[in-house]
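Forum: Protein Structure Q&A
Topic: Joint prediction for protein chains with partners

I've read a bunch of threads here and the consensus seems to be that you should model interacting components together rather than docking separate models afterwards. I'd like to see that in practice. Below is the full input, 338 residues plus whatever partners are listed. Could one of the regulars post the assembled result?
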Amino acid sequence: MSLVERVLAGDRLALARLLSQIENEETTGLDDLAALYPHTGDAHLVGVTGAPGTGKSTLVNKLVMHMRQEGEEGGDADTMIAVVAVDPSSPFTGGAILGDRIRMRDLAGDPCVFIRSMASRGALGGLARATAGVVQALDAAGFDVIMIETVGAGQAEVDIARTAHTTVVITAPGMGDEVQAIKAGILEIADILVVNKADIPGADNTLRALRATLEMAKPERYVPSLPQQGDASIERGEEADSWETPVMATVATEGEGVAELIQAIEDHRRYLQASGEWTIRERGRIRSEMEGLLRDTLAARFLERQPDGRFEEALEKVLTRSLSPRQAILSILDGEDR
Ligand SMILES: Nc1nc2c(ncn2[C@@H]2O[C@H](COP(=O)(O)OP(=O)(O)OP(=O)(O)O)[C@@H](O)[C@H]2O)c(=O)[nH]1
Ligand SMILES: [Mg+2]
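Posted by a regular:
Agreed with the consensus. Here's the joint model:
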């Protein structure tokens, strides 16, 4: 059996090997990913993001355990859940991920749960690309829910969050997070806002501050997204016209609020599907993935064809201020010596 066939048949060892190849951007892995692509599109991609230490991993662990238990208690017992923990800040598999491994330990041994940690070894763009590939492979492998945990609130996290259908933003009391979150524009990407560590004094204030901020931001937030060309056939359900971002309190360590959060994630999936927003987001996601690939591929191919040192020469001229960066790039592209 080929690696692709084994992945489709549910072979976890094959899946792990494929994910490594995708992370390393090996040609065989990327070719296999292309062969798997027709099998993607069914998973619910849930992004979980927030500042370091807010309790994302603890919460994801509890969410997964709860979803699996729900399955045993009469729901879909075969619900398959994957977790991708992305840590752009650590260049090696460092402390954070080691900690995650320990926190995720409860989930080990469940054949319906798969956990993958990723750390950046190079450019953040590379990490976003690798994450998208890993998520696609998990989707093809039949996971129903894929949770993507990213640390922080910078552009890299926002980009990775764009890979998801549903974005859950986690804050915690007393970290000045409310303010930071607003500054980073993270509220705009939140479909669900969670104040974790609700057992800590001051949690009420954080909840209130976030609710007030959301309320103020409302007029801008709820401009309904216009269907793009080709989406005209989408019927919009009457009730499903807008999504009110809920602000929820959890105590991840105790599992408090976890059932409600799962319900909210499920409600959001239903909303996306009933409103046609699912298709619109899917189009947006794939468009930005393709645009990124086009940019990266064009640049790589162009530089490959350049005579050696040409880029470096131009760089020197910019350093000495005899060319502006823009002039330098134009001169390389036009192949002229200026
Ligand atoms: N008091 C309290 N502590 C919590 C709660 N949830 C998590 N913690 C603790 O907060 C610390 C950080 O939790 P993590 O789950 O590692 O947080 P994280 O956001 O994944 O951290 P990074 O991945 O490093 O960004 C741990 O010591 C947890 O035990 C909570 O609800 N209440
Ligand atoms: Mg974590």
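Residues 56-57, 96, 100, 149 surround magnesium ion (ligand 2) (CB under 6 Å).
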